[in-house]
Write a structure and sequence with these properties.
With 105 residues, the chain is α+β, with helices and mostly antiparallel strands. The protein has four helices and two strands; from the N terminus they run E-E-H-H-H-H. The protein has one domain: Actin, Chain A, domain 4 (Alpha-Beta Complex), CATH 3.90.640.
């Protein structure tokens, strides 16, 4: 089945593109692991650094480093603990509230 898509249209002419859909079988679909690997390769090819995070402590340490770098500051351990517990991971908030605030930090 061939489909024609209008690319541009004026009173005088119309430009169309011919599109023949390629149907794939389930054997051609990419696994989630392959998709993740390809995505990581794409990002590292664009200059992003891949940082394997193995546990929550490593994730929190990376967050601290990134916030310090972004804001050109250095937290003392006490400042970081207070900031993290009051502003990022408050015990009074659920996962939804915590997730909403990350883009605002």
């Amino acid at each position: 089945m061939t489909t024609y898509n209008i690319i541009a249209s004026t009173d005088e002419s119309t430009v169309v593109a011919e599109y023949a859909p390629h149907y794939r079988t389930a054997a051609e679909y990419q696994s989630e692991a392959d998709l993740e690997r390809e995505f990581i390769q794409l990002l590292t090819g664009q200059g992003y650094e891949y940082l394997p995070i193995a546990n929550e402590a490593a994730l929190i340490d990376n967050l601290r480093r990134q916030l310090e770098t972004l804001n050109d500051i250095k937290f003392t351990n006490g400042e970081w603990e207070r900031f993290f517990s009051e502003r990022i991971a408050s015990a009074n908030e659920g996962i939804v509230e915590k997730t909403r605030k990350i883009p605002l930090i």
